């Protein structure tokens, strides 16, 4: 608890840090099945928490606790240092609880995420993927937001303002713009373009925004057409009332 240690919070500042969490899974090749795994295990898989483009996140993330299905021996796995991952084999899909523990200086409580382990291909080319025994990736981009971090943690997050990082403008209130301070290795920046290893980039973000803008336009157009139809129907109804007269008794619906 930050208040207990007497640490002051940096007012009006939110610092966010991006990360990726998810899983990769691959079925065993029957020809090259490792000898020492149980006969009913069909896949090898990996669940992980990592930085975008493998950026270091260990300065804010202290440890990660993965809670596997109870069919696993020692279902709770704690990883104290990067890579924050668990490699396993198994036969079934299940929900994995992922608990993020932050650096002690943060004074922050742990945060819990859930990930659905995916072993089986999904999406348009699921059949092809299955035939080729492709790796099944299921991962999400996420951001952790530290609202008004305590000063020592703020120093850690930003790499220290005394080393030449420009002091952030400290606006008022919770809606103050989140800071993206550039310090080698300690940054919230995501790459400009994606690469085969990393799909999360400014370019993919821009594409996604374009898709959303297009979708909003389509929905607006549909609403417009629907409203026009409604106006026409009401007009027709008014005409009918005019020509046929309003029935004296209207049936209850
Ligand atoms: C299912 N509800 O029925 C899920 C549970 C559990 C998967 C999946 C453990 C392997 C072992 C394993 O793969 N558990 O060590 O026995 O699909």
From TrEMBL:
Instruction: Tell me the compartments it is located in.
Output: Nucleus
The YEATS domain sits at 9-160
Region (Disordered) location? 157-209
| Iron listed as a keyword | no
Q: Which GO terms describe its cellular component?
A: chromatin; nucleus
What keywords is this UniProt entry annotated with?
Coiled coil, Nucleus, Transcription, Transcription regulation
Q: Does the keyword Magnesium apply?
A: no
Major site of localization recorded for this protein = nucleus
* GO terms for biological process, alphabetical: regulation of DNA-templated transcription
Question: Which InterPro entries does the record match to this protein?
Answer: YEAST_sf (IPR038704), YEATS (IPR005033), YEATS_dom (IPR055129)
Coiled-coil annotation reads 209-243
PANTHER family attached to this UniProt entry: PROTEIN AF-9 HOMOLOG
Protein name, entry field: Protein AF-9 homolog
Q: What's the source species for this entry?
A: Penicillium ucsense
């Amino acid at each position: 608890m930050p208040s207990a240690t007497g640490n002051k919070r940096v007012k009006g500042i939110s610092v966010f840090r991006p990360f990726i969490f998810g899983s990769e899974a691959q079925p065993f090749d029957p020809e090259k099945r490792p000898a020492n795994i149980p006969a009913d295990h069909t896949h090898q898989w990996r669940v992980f928490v990592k930085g975008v483009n493998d950026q270091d996140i260990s300065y804010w993330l202290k440890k990660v606790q993965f809670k596997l299905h109870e069919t696993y021996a020692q279902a709770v796995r704690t990883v104290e240092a990067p890579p924050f991952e668990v490699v396993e084999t198994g036969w079934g899909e299940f929900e994995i609880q992922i608990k993020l523990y932050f650096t002690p200086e943060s004074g922050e409580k742990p945060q819990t995420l859930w990930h659905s382990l995916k072993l089986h291909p999904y999406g348009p080319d699921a059949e092809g993927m299955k035939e080729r025994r492709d790796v099944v990736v299921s991962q999400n981009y996420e951001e952790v937001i530290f609202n008004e971090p305590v000063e020592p943690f703020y120093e850690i997050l930003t790499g220290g303002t005394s080393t030449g990082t420009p002091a952030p403008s400290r606006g008022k209130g919770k809606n103050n713009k989140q800071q993206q301070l550039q310090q080698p290795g300690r940054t919230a920046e995501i790459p400009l373009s994606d690469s085969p290893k990393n799909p999360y980039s400014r370019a993919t973000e821009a594409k996604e925004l374009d898709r959303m803008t297009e979708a909003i336009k389509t929905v607006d157009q549909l609403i417009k057409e629907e409203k026009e139809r409604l106006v026409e129907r009401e007009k027709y109804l008014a005409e009918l009332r005019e020509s046929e007269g309003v029935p004296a008794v209207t049936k209850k619906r």
